[in-house]
Write a structure and sequence with these properties.
Blueprint (H helix, E strand, L loop, with lengths): L1 E2 L5 E2 L5 E7 L2 H13 L7 E17 L2 H24 L5 H28 L7 E17 L3 H10 L42 H14 L4
Antiparallel strand pairs: 1-2, 3-5, 4-5
Helix pairs in contact: 2-3
Length: 217
């Protein structure tokens, strides 16, 4: 276990490799969910967002009246929660309902006043309401390097049985040569001999011609 400079424990670094990338978080979440359904140990995965940016969506124009209305609703909800909690210590139903109603009323009044004054003090520098969120341009699904092949097989080739072991093929020992196949009844001839022998008729003709010529002087 490693420790940070502040003194807190830090988990050891894990060698993770890129499995797949998406342009939205939903797709990356779906990929991890697919691995989880297949029985893959998803504690060895991570979703990393890159190219972070802030996106602020404008929801509408904000005036003093809208600010007061928004504060009224927020204050009423807060008063309801407080009234329900304090009502637990009352002994009668009438006092319980009365306490809840008074809490809602005073919460709404206080919230409306706070919303109106807080917007009025801005001096018109922000006359709109919006929602802010941080999004990424790319979402990478990372897995431990030792499990990269298994995760790729689950995403591309489907789920394999639990007792199936994928064995890597050994490296080739070289090209395999095969002996040529001969057709017919022709046998290979030995080197150093003529391809064909003289026929018996040709030998007898040569002997008779030599006998007729006689011996040489």
């Amino acid at each position: 276990m490693q420790y940070s400079p502040a003194g807190g424990p830090v988990s050891p670094a894990v060698d993770r490799r890129l499995l797949v990338s998406y342009d939205n978080y939903t797709a990356a979440q779906r990929a991890v969910d697919t691995l989880s359904d297949a029985g893959f140990p998803v504690e060895n995965t991570a979703i990393v967002g890159s190219d972070l940016r802030l996106e602020e969506t404008v929801t509408g124009r904000l005036t003093n009246g809208r600010a007061a209305l928004s504060g009224l609703i927020t204050g009423a909800v807060f008063g309801l929660v407080v009234g329900l909690f304090l009502g637990l210590f009352t002994s009668t139903t009438t006092s319980f309902i009365g306490l809840v109603l008074w809490s809602i009323l005073w919460g709404a009044i206080a919230g409306a006043a706070f919303g109106f004054t807080s917007h009025a003090f801005t001096g018109g520098t922000r006359d709109f309401s919006s929602r802010s969120s941080i999004v990424a341009g790319r979402y990478d699904v990372l897995v431990a390097s030792s499990m990269l092949d298994q995760a790729q097989a689950l995403l591309q080739g489907g789920v394999q049985p639990a007792d199936t072991v994928v064995v890597q093929r050994p490296p080739s020992a070289g090209p395999v040569t095969t002996s040529p196949v001969t057709t017919g009844d022709t046998a290979p001839q030995a080197t150093g001999f003529p391809e064909s022998e003289p026929r018996a008729e040709e030998v007898r003709d040569e002997d008779r011609a030599g006998a007729s010529r006689g011996p040489r002087p």
